[in-house]
Amino acid sequence: MKPIQLKHAYRLINHGPVVLLSAEHAGMRDIMAVAWNMPLDFEPARLLVVLDKTSNTRKLVEGSGTFGISIPTRSQVNTIMSVGSISASELPSKDKFLHWNLATTPATHIQAPLLNESVGWLECKVINEPHNQSTYDLFIAEIVAAYADERVFSNGRWHFDDHEEMRTVHYTSGGSFFTTGSSFHIDKKTV
Ligand SMILES: Cc1cc2nc3c(=O)[nH]c(=O)nc-3n(C[C@H](O)[C@H](O)[C@H](O)COP(=O)(O)O)c2cc1C
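Above are the sequence and the flavin mononucleotide SMILES. Below is the predicted complex in structure-token form.
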């Protein structure tokens, strides 16, 4: 993973992929799928996510004030559905990473496990907005570090064409996804 300039961090999620959001607090860690995420600002880099009140991961986010985002690929859809379909609190180990043997890398600027095999990582600090959080389940956060896999993201652009299984995925509902399609570029000056 290569560090990305924070002013370009939004580009990792601008195309709307489903992400995996992880958090760690008081000796507990958890991870959940989050389709409802989007960039919010360039500098300082910010994003927003919607985290339902039933989610155990949300409790860890509230406790730590931080979370990690891992951008999974087509080859990780089983993991996406697994961590997005059951709460850690329902597992015997209470730990999805142990339960599904998920390999992680520690975040650099916050305390959170980031999922290996992902093509992008964002490290985030919550900007506390209690009204939005309690009324709309909406969490705004500043991105304090960003990384991407050079094989599919370089010069500020995704390029998946030579790496089919590394394409990111978009969620509709009920287990249905799209993979990110082929890219094309329009020169702004010619429009
Ligand atoms: C593809 C997918 C996308 C999801 N997107 C969201 C979302 O945007 N926000 C949310 O609160 N839950 C979302 N969920 C549900 C959570 O991931 C799910 O409730 C998870 O089991 C919570 O786990 P936890 O209780 O261990 O945190 C999604 C689930 C799937 C399968």
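The chain has a mean pLDDT of 97.
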